[in-house]
Amino acid sequence: ITPQMALQYKEEHYAIINMQKHYKTYFKDIDHFKEYRIKLMTASHLDEIYHLFDEIEEKFCTTKTEKDAN
User: Fold this and answer.
1) How do residues 12-26 score in pLDDT, each as one tens digit?
2) Rounded to the nearest 10 degrees, how much is the dihedral formed by the CA atoms of 49, 54, 56, 60?
């Protein structure tokens, strides 16, 4: 492992920890979100978190047009 790799990992690790502090507030009003909150809290890489954000957006976010169609 190179010093650059170690620094990159350390920065990523701290970014993840800082993000985790806010998940409860960000997602508190979403029903049936527990599974995703657990996945977000246990994710150890930013790529994994970004993938989960995409899944969350696809599952829980609807546009006004989509709501009107139902």
Assistant:
1) 888 889 889 889 898
2) 160
Is a pLDDT exceeding 90 seen at residue 48?
yes
| Amino acid letter, residue 54 | D
pLDDT of residue 35: 95
Supply the DSSP string of 9-69, one letter for each residue.
HHHHHHHHHHHHTTHHHHTTT-TT-HHHHHHHHH--SHHHHHHHHHHHHHHH---HHHHHH
**Residue for token pair 């546009």:** 63
Question: Is residue 5 within 8 Å of residue 11, measured between CB atoms?
Answer: no
